[in-house]
Specification:
This protein is 65% helix and 3% strand. The protein has 400 residues and is mainly alpha-helical. The C terminus is likely disordered.
Length: 400
């Protein structure tokens, strides 16, 4: 892309300003996407249940997220008299901030070189400014994502503890135990792409998928990641915090107004974040037709990369909503058993097979594929048996 030489010199001298603009853009996009993900979910579930959905606030209900935000903004804020007020206020912030900063290392598109003359366009010359489509591409990006996601657990525990409410405390402990259990499988599921790419940089992982997406080479890892991410963000069928009939809404029972909205915001922004990470690790990230083709202008590749990346995120969001509209909430003991007895062993076996395939012949990938089919059959059989057991046993009897 050709720009005036003065503007390129300005970008080089004030690169911190470029990072600041990128960060502000990510925050703006996430806030907007969070609001309209709620509308997207309500309309999709309404379609699946043969209902209309929100259609009163604005044309086609497009102003419904704004109406919901104004309602929560002016709703009365309540803090229990015996609560730890400082921790009570900080807990929603601790939950929502990691959801924002987790995307700092995820690339949105290919690099665009801004050059002062056509002769230098696309060349790796010092006169050009390489504009990366992302905030940062650190060499430990995957480790950064895993460390940031673990911080949100503190917000859940502290919210339940600071409320000085026994139900909220139980809900916080139960939700944190669920998040810790499935975070182990989630962390192990991303080791496969790490081994295949030979790098922890998210940009390098995307570049390594130029010929084939890792979902083809890592079907089990992709499946484990998607299931574990549902439990990590407390989505159905793992939405234990929303089990009102058991714990009166769990750790956020005592929250109202904007403090409750922050928990609500954190859940939906984390949905967007895990969708972006899944697209990056297993589905080629921003890669698609014409992206990476040297005959296509860089600015067009950047636009196409953003479109591909956004489309993949929307498809993953649709998948999460579809699961919520289809599957019932499972029992908590079944939830924990599935995480420790099924997900964790499968993740470890997937790592072992991937490592063995990398040091053996290419034909070994056939065994990996057969293993993936066997895992899918095992999961389907397990779910079917669990469903039969649920119908046969009925609900758990309360201990006296």
């Amino acid at each position: 892309m050709i720009l005036p030489a003065e503007f390129i010199i300005f970008l080089k001298n004030y690169e911190w300003l470029v990072w600041l603009v990128k960060a502000a853009l990510v925050v703006f996009v996430l806030l907007t996407a969070f609001a309209y993900t709620t509308l997207f979910e309500r309309r999709v579930i309404a379609m699946m249940q043969t209902r209309i959905g929100p259609n009163r606030a604005g044309p086609f209900g497009f102003l419904q997220p704004l109406a919901d935000g104004l309602k929560l903004l002016f709703k009365e804020e309540l803090i229990p008299a015996s609560a730890d007020k400082l921790v009570f206020i900080l807990a929603p912030m601790i939950t929502v901030i990691p959801a924002f900063i987790i995307l700092a290392v995820v690339p949105w598109g290919p690099t665009v070189h801004l050059c002062p003359t056509p002769e230098l366009l696309g060349a790796q010359a010092s006169a050009c400014y390489p504009l990366t489509m992302g905030i940062a591409d650190v060499n430990v990006g995957l480790l950064y994502i895993l460390s940031v996601t673990s911080i949100a657990i503190y917000g859940v525990v502290l919210a339940g503890w600071s409320s000085n409410n026994k139900y909220a405390m139980l809900g916080g402990l139960r939700s944190s135990a669920q998040m810790v259990s499935y975070e182990l499988a989630l962390g192990l599921s991303v080791v496969g792409p790490l081994l295949l790419a030979g790098s922890m940089s998210m940009g390098d992982i995307v570049q390594a998928q130029s010929k084939i997406w890792y979902v083809v080479l890592q079907p089990v890892g992709a499946l484990i990641f998607l299931v574990a991410s549902l439990a990590e963000v407390n989505r159905a069928p793992f939405d234990m915090p929303e089990a009102e009939q058991e714990l009166t809404a769990g750790y956020h029972t005592e929250y109202s107004g904007m403090k409750f909205a922050l928990f609500f915001m954190g859940e939906y922004i984390k949905m967007i974040a895990v969708s972006a990470i899944a697209a990056t690790l297993f589905f080629g990230g921003y890669r698609g037709p014409l992206v990476g083709d040297p005959n296509v202008p860089e600015w067009l590749q950047a636009i196409l990369g953003l479109l591909y990346f956004g489309t993949k995120i929307v498809l993953f969001l649709f998948l999460m909503i579809w699961v919520r509209a289809t599957l019932p909430r499972i029992r908590y003991d079944r939830l924990m058993a599935f995480g420790w007895k099924v997900m964790l062993p499968l993740a470890l076996a997937n790592i072992a097979l991937t490592a063995a395939a990398l040091v053996s012949s290419i034909a070994f990938w056939v065994l990996v594929g057969l293993f993936g089919l066997g895992v899918l059959f095992y999961l389907l059989t397990t779910v079917r048996q669990v469903g039969k057991a649920e119908l046969a046993q009925g609900p758990l009897e309360e201990s006296g």
